[in-house]
């Protein structure tokens, strides 16, 4: 973040409402523009606050980012602004990629995206001539059936302009949750162990099996229903586990700090899925909309009650220190998991109280980090001693002397050469039609956090933003006969909500914007589980809806 704020001469923010959703970094970007004249291009269908100080606002139709980016690269190539040396030395797959980009002349791109040709030309000139340029992106890019393709297209752009592996450059995903980067690094994904070591790699599986004292052979369940060895198959994502409850792939859920009734797409469907589950355990800090479906509630602790580390959006591992003792019956999240594991291993209630924790022999988060160090090359050199000394470590940190890696890909890419990918535009899964003529996009507001379980308990936040608002453009408001304080009914093929309208130029005509912070009018009653084929992320950003005055 410091690097981008201090060194980028151009900033390209696409699909990120940075000042509301990442306010600290948003403020840093703002200062870079105001104080040192960095050029800011924002590509977002909505007139978000960031556009107030942007050099250029590209207002594309939702779900047309690939066409937009290919069109910008077409113009960069037409003007000879590509970085020929970088492409020759560091990349491959260029010819095939060129064939695809040639299919995106500005007139055609303007038609798909709704952005005037002159604006495309202005953007391409900044991107082609102002170096270095940093790209920042978030959920406006990923929450589409083409989420992975969108990100690859951004990588194409940054390789074409030679902005990879350089200070002030790069493709910079703004990670959302305080520790989502850490959760992924720790293998909280169905296909990898810690630091992206694949479960299907035999060497990796044997390494973990040896460390954990289990059979080196792939997972097998014996006649006594005892499990031996580690899985050699990729597991399910959340968006597969949920429908899995209906078709028998999943029977039980252990939900740790998620509120799927609020945050998963197509709430009515999610209710059916949870009702079909044989057994649900929910480890939470508050009763939530999802707790009605849980057989067992386990009280975990909040950030303020725990010690440990969070890994932030820039791969920086940071200490978290306990500020208050756990309230009520709450226990450390890691302790609850370890005790369940121990009981599964056969310990009785009396011995559990006293340990030792057979194979789960942890007494503190630092014990857990020691195990991570031994099994995870990129975290090998990150320990409490260094963190407590105040060292600012960004992984990879391959050993205890290594200073960390603030910038990736400086000399080469993880796979060797950077591969240009030929990527075509694919329209969203659901498009407006006569029955459902509006596009609804969904996301967050500054004052609330996801399902709102934490922020709706804060009086000050509720006094600032106390109910769900649906953003509607003034021209649509007129057609719908909305007046001040009007409520609208927003309906999709899956459900319906009623919420107060916020008539605003933030959304263009034909588009509405809703959030999922309030159970009484959650956008996820309307969204659908159309998934990206690779990452399995749902297309939260495009839903066809009809809108009426209540
Ligand atoms: N206050 C607050 N802050 C948060 C959160 C919160 O709940 N509340 N959540 C955190 C989490 S987990 C996350 S993941 C981040 C999310 O952070 P962001 O991704 O910045 O937030 P979103 O509101 O999901 O939407 C991002 C932007 O994408 C735009 N958009 C919609 N459709 C498209 C499209 O087709 N193309 C493009 N280019 N843009 C589009 C929207 O108009 C919006 O401005 O925020 C984090 N920060
Ligand atoms: N329509 C639509 N839906 C979306 C999105 C969108 O843009 N549009 N964005 C998606 C994204 S990016 C995200 S990240 C998800 C977020 O969705 P969720 O992860 O379901 O939402 P959160 O509210 O962040 O967290 C869930 C629960 O964690 C609990 N919790 C907080 N801290 C702790 C803790 O330390 N320990 C324990 N045990 N529990 C804790 C909170 O009480 C809360 O109820 O929503 C997704 N859903
Ligand atoms: Mo997120």
Describe the structure.
It contains 21 helices and 21 strands. With 550 residues, the protein is of the alpha/beta class. The protein has three domains: 2-174, Dimethylsulfoxide Reductase, domain 2 (3-Layer(aba) Sandwich); 180-388, Rossmann fold; 438-549, Beta Barrel (Barwin-like endoglucanases), CATH 2.40.40. Strand 12 (308-311) and strand 13 (316-320) form a beta hairpin. Helix 4 packs antiparallel against helix 7 (106-113) and helix 4 (65-78) packs across helix 8. The longest helix is centred in the N-terminal third of the chain and has 14 residues, at 23-36. It is globular and about 75 Å long. The two termini are 45 Å apart. Molybdenum atom binds at residues 176-177.
Which characteristics define this entry?
Barwin-like endoglucanases; Dimethylsulfoxide Reductase, domain 2; globular; binds molybdenum atom; 16% strand; alpha/beta; 33% helix; 550 residues; five-stranded parallel beta sheet; single chain
Number of domains: 3
**Small molecules held by this entry:** ligand MGD, molybdenum atom
User: So what's the oligomer here?
Assistant: single chain
Q: What's the mean pLDDT score?
A: 95
User: How many strands?
Assistant: 21
CATH uppermost class of the largest domain: Alpha Beta
Shape: globular
Which CATH-level-2 architecture of the largest domain?
A: 3-Layer(aba) Sandwich
Question: What class would the helix/strand composition place it in?
Answer: alpha/beta
